[in-house]
Amino acid sequence: DRYSAGNFAAGGTIPETGVSEGGINTGVEMTPEPGVKVWRAVPCDLAFPCACENEVDADDARALSANGCIALFEGANMACTRGAVELVRAAGMIFGPSKACSAGGVAVSALEMTQTATFKQWWPSKVEKEFNCIMEHVFRQCLDSANYFQLGNNLSAGATIAAFLNLADAMMLQGAV
């Protein structure tokens, strides 16, 4: 098993041994050559671009695919260019769009607000369990919507459709439609 590459604005990877709780900067190795993006320099199974918009371009996506990457999940808003997304899909890689992946941050905020509103502090294991349940639901909505409309595993289209259907349902329940 190969480890996944993590990205930093300057380009870097997380070693197989992981990173200590003491700080993200310990154990981080820079890419072999200055200016070479981590997506092209480090083979990985999973890619998580999290630094900025348009971080992964078509050439990066091509390199990820050629190096055996099976999935790319946008941790930043629109971390991939349109060309990168098209190449990822054409290569048969799983693509986790930012609009679905970003639900994780929103979910954590909602869990924090729930704790505050109820004057209770949850154990980390309960937070993790609730978070996993929410993210599994988001994934299932994306996949089910894509499958219902015969779009295969196009999670991006599934996320858009699921969001629209949720909004339309809410509007109808409120009598707005």
TrEMBL record:
Recorded GO CC terms: cytosol
GO molecular function: glutamate dehydrogenase (NADP+) activity
SUPFAM superfamilies, per the entry: NAD(P)-binding Rossmann-fold domains
Residue intervals of the Glutamate/phenylalanine/leucine/valine/L-tryptophan dehydrogenase C-terminal domain: 6-175
GO terms of biological process kind: glutamate biosynthetic process
Protein name: Glutamate/phenylalanine/leucine/valine/L-tryptophan dehydrogenase C-terminal domain-containing protein
Species of provenance: Fibrocapsa japonica
Lineage: Eukaryota, Sar, Stramenopiles, Ochrophyta, Raphidophyceae
